[in-house]
Specification:
The protein folds into 2 domains: 67 residues; 99 residues, no CATH class. It is 72% helix and 3% strand. It contains 8 helices and 2 strands; from the N terminus they run αααααβααβα. Strands 1-2 form a two-stranded antiparallel sheet.
Length: 188
């Protein structure tokens, strides 16, 4: 064989090997694209399944809150995206949340003083007023503890009362509804 024929033979072999490598590379890329597409489809299915589960859970939580006297409007207001005014309000309530959420009858009287002429009458009516006002921002501690306990899947209201910071001995103990949502979001 002459030198030129050897060179031509080597070139043909190199070109053949190059075409084989290109074909293998293209097949590998196609396989990887199929895998990524399959993963994307699987991820989409998982996201849809998770979204359905979250929607079901949200509906159940809304029903639970509604059954305990928290209005749909109040829930919707709580779930609105935060604005600067919400942030300022949250910071104000965050400082309050470290203190026990006990409202003595006299303090309740100050909130509803316009509806009553006598403080004695007010003290007798304060818990009833709170119970029949679904749009208020507070809930009786016993009721709040039941909500929290049920949301966490147990019936131990003592743990929930402690988490809410409620004084067990006080008849008119109330807690801010925002605090209820915060505790529901936590693990007891």
């Amino acid at each position: 064989m002459t030198k030129t024929s050897e060179v031509k033979k080597r070139l043909r072999e190199n070109q053949r090997a190059c075409r084989v490598r290109q074909k293998e590379l293209i097949e590998d890329l196609r396989r990887r694209v199929r895998e990524l597409e399959d993963r994307g489809i699987q991820a989409t299915k998982e996201m849809q399944c998770t979204a359905r589960a979250v929607e079901w859970e949200n509906n159940r939580l809304r029903a639970l809150l509604s059954s305990h006297g928290i209005s749909t409007g109040e829930i919707d207001n709580f779930l609105r995206p935060e604005t600067k005014s919400h942030l300022a309000w949250d910071q104000g309530t965050a400082a309050e949340s470290t203190e026990p959420h006990v409202m003595a009858p006299q303090n309740v009287g100050q909130v509803f003083a316009g509806d009553f002429t006598d403080l004695g009458e007010l003290q007798a009516e304060s818990s009833i007023t709170l119970a029949r006002e679904p749009a208020t921002m507070v809930t009786l501690c016993d009721k709040a503890a039941k909500i929290v306990a049920e949301a966490h899947g147990h019936r131990d209201t003592e743990v929930a009362l402690n988490a809410l910071g409620c004084a067990r001995k006080t008849k008119d103990c109330v807690v801010n509804n925002v605090k209820i949502f915060d505790i529901i979001g936590q693990t007891l």
